[in-house]
Specification:
The structure is a homodimer of 157-residue chains. Chain A has 157 residues and is an alpha+beta fold. Chain A has a single domain, classed as Ubiquitin-like (UB roll). Chain A has 3 helices and 8 strands. Chain A has a 4-stranded mixed beta sheet with strand order 2-1-6-5, with helices on one face. In chain A, strands 3-4 form a two-stranded antiparallel sheet. The termini of chain A are far apart. Chains A and B meet through strand 1, strand 2, strand 5, strand 7 and strand 8 of A and strand 1, strand 2, strand 5, strand 7 and strand 8 of B.
Chain lengths: 157, 157
């Protein structure tokens, strides 16, 4: 086991860039780390994007092997769009790119957590900071977070 | 839209218990909130457990309708074990119960985030605080978090 110097100690110390800049490259002879991921029957895993400073969970999307490889390579979040069936470089339309500071894998190797810096402060297509803007209260899902920017302004009419 | 007083303002203000204590009850005549969730073809959604104070993502598991209803009712995390094919009251063996302070739903209504208070400070079956103890560095998944308690001590030999 090698210890990542930037990650020892308090988990809150997320401010150093954990990347070794040529280390994340997905060269043809270095894809073993991708083989370690337990892709589901559709070849996907869920990826959680978490604000690297506040810890807020911003969104959850899906990644296939190419999406994760590309995320590691370019250090911006790239997901697999299940609806459009293609790679989705987050922010390609909205400008709301997610700079990726860290990539973690869980014990079962089937979920990814990204520590991201959210450009524009908006992760959700509704124009909110986070997709998780509804809280269960009094037996109802109550919307508790404001729209920061009109989606029409983000995506055009 | 109703605004939840405890949730306005800074997201970091997670210290108030967002529950209305009889509100989370899953009475037979109040299951509309469960109908709002977009269960997948297996009747499941992923649920992220996040430490309510540090924001650390502790684990991701799956919930079916009964698991989410029971989580809301007893205010402790109850998941659906896909391997054992039964409800899994987190901590039933380990004692590492998760007290649930808040339940959120995302814009697509297909992912849950729980704000939890992790009893024993250990969420992972490996004896670590979080299941996400591996970081991608130099093209390898490096284990960066310590085992806090031997799993044999947690689960017995």
């Amino acid at each position: 086991m090698r210890i990542a110097a930037g990650s020892i100690g308090q988990y809150n110390d997320r401010h150093s860039d954990g990347f070794s800049h040529d280390a994340m490259a997905n060269s043809p002879d270095n894809t073993k780390w991708l083989d370690s991921v337990k892709w589901d029957s559709a070849g996907l895993v869920p990826a959680i994007a978490q604000d690297w400073q506040t810890g807020r969970v911003l969104m959850v999307a899906w990644m296939n092997r190419d999406a994760l490889a590309e995320t590691a390579r370019c250090r911006e979040a790239v997901y697999w769009s299940r609806s459009r069936k293609k790679l989705w470089h987050k922010g390609e339309e909205s400008g709301h790119v997610q700079a990726v500071h860290e990539i973690r894998l869980d014990c079962d190797a089937d979920v990814i957590v990204l520590q991201v810096e959210q450009r524009g402060g908006i992760a959700c297509h509704t124009g909110r900071e986070s997709c998780f803007y509804r809280v269960l209260q009094d037996g109802e899902w109550e919307t508790v977070d404001p729209v920061l920017k009109d989606p029409q302004q983000i995506y055009g009419a």
